[in-house]
Specification:
It contains 15 helices and no strands. The protein has about 300 residues and is mainly α.
């Protein structure tokens, strides 16, 4: 166990011995579950700091995606005419945008979490994984209002969700949450030693929306690049997560497509690509957790 003054006093009173562990060693993400109180405090702090002196506060969780949606819908839906060739294109696009918003916020903030909390890390020891995990929880605070908006709009136009669609939502949410956290652990570790990592994070976030079927249909990739490139394209867990959200929120509302091939989700989404995405996601998390634990003993020194 780590150094704990209270435990040390209790052990000294009973005359037994206590074994101390070298500071900086941890059990990785498992320490997060035993530090729920600290995690809650960090999440509260992050939300308060972000909206300090802000008039609108959490209302920005609605304004930012609304503006983003408006810009993309005008450019892609109106100017490029995608709104005419795809039924309920607004639902299609917004269900993908909220997935990428969650990814971008978790990945970006988790990658900067260690450097951003360097002052605290240098003063006391606490499980450093709490900081990137807190970025995930804060992102969900902003993600849920966006999902609520999408659900309300879908219900208005006659959406009747099934258990399969509910499963698509939870599976897509799991993939995007875990994958973005895993990348945050990897790049957050690299960012401590090489500040250039932040530039790579910004670059990935910038192109991520365009490398997933958020603004366009997956069939365009297959038609333009061929089946081989399409298979490589589907190895991206972000693509699978977006398609799972499309299956949940958009596909049931597109009841009268001009051409079914233009609107159905990727073939074998559940039987092939979702299991592959889960394997890649979990493997990335294991790698991220390993690298984080491997180098976290040097974080305070480097910061």
């Amino acid at each position: 166990m780590r150094f704990d003054p209270v435990a040390l006093m209790k052990q000294s009173e009973t005359g037994s011995t206590i074994q101390l562990q070298t500071p900086g060693r941890s059990r990785g993400l498992r320490d997060v579950f035993s530090s729920s109180f600290l995690l809650k405090r960090i999440v509260d702090k992050e939300i308060q700091v972000r909206y300090r002196d802000s008039v609108l506060g959490l209302v920005w969780s609605y304004i930012k995606p609304a503006v983003q949606f408006g810009v993309f819908f005008l450019a892609m839906g109106v100017f490029l005419g995608l709104n005419k060739g795809l039924e309920n294109y607004a639902i299609y696009m917004f269900s993908g945008i909220i997935v990428m918003n969650l990814f971008g916020e978790v990945f970006g903030n988790a990658s900067r979490a260690i450097v951003g909390n360097g002052g605290l890390i240098k003063k006391i020891y606490l499980p450093r994984e709490l900081f990137p995990v807190s970025s995930l929880l804060v992102a969900w605070v902003h993600f849920l209002p966006q999902v609520l908006i999408l659900v309300v709009v879908n219900l208005i136009i006659g959406w009747h969700p099934t258990w399969v669609q509910a499963g698509s939502f939870f599976m897509g949410s799991f993939i995007i949450s875990v994958f973005s956290l895993a990348l945050g652990l990897i790049f957050g570790t690299a960012n401590v030693f090489f500040r250039d990592a932040e530039n790579f994070v910004d670059l990935i976030n910038m192109v991520a929306t365009w490398l997933s079927p958020v603004l366009y249909m997956w069939v365009l990739v297959e038609k333009s690049m061929g089946a081989l490139v399409m298979h490589i394209y589907m190895l991206n867990p972000l693509t699978v997560a977006v398609e799972l959200f499309h299956d949940c929120f958009w596909a049931p509302t597109a009841k009268y497509p001009i051409n079914p091939e233009q609107w159905r989700v990727v073939p074998h989404l559940f039987t092939l690509w979702t299991p592959i995405a889960l394997v890649i996601t979990v493997a990335t998390l294991v790698l991220g957790d390993f690298l984080f634990r491997r180098f976290e003993s040097r974080f305070a020194q480097e910061l």
